[in-house]
């Protein structure tokens, strides 16, 4: 099973005090009145998360295509690509 690291939780007031020295390599959940208000994370981690979500979306599309029978053999794919490349030059 895939496990995620536990997010650190802090209050808005503590977040303001710690902001300049805060380590956000792992997400920080900022709460107000005990309720989550923001999630702060490292930009590189955010980018990686976005890429992972995009990949999962593509995998979902592929799974739906497979179930619907929208597949090609490697020979069919190669033939279609050759046709596209040949027609592209004309």
From TrEMBL:
Q: Which InterPro entries match?
A: YefM-like_sf
Tell me which domain of life the UniProt entry assigns to the organism this sequence originates from: Bacteria
Q: Hey, which family's this protein in?
A: Belongs to the phD/YefM antitoxin family.
Full protein name:
Type II toxin-antitoxin system Phd/YefM family antitoxin
Species: Idiomarina rhizosphaerae
């Amino acid at each position: 099973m895939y496990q995620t690291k536990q997010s650190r939780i802090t209050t808005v007031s503590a977040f303001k005090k710690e902001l300049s020295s805060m380590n956000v390599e792992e997400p920080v959940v900022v709460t107000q009145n005990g309720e989550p208000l923001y999630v702060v994370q490292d930009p590189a981690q955010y980018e990686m998360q976005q890429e992972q979500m995009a990949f999962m979306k593509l995998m979902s599309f592929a799974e739906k295509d497979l179930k619907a029978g929208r597949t090609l053999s490697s020979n069919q794919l190669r033939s279609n690509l050759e046709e596209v490349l040949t027609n592209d030059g004309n």
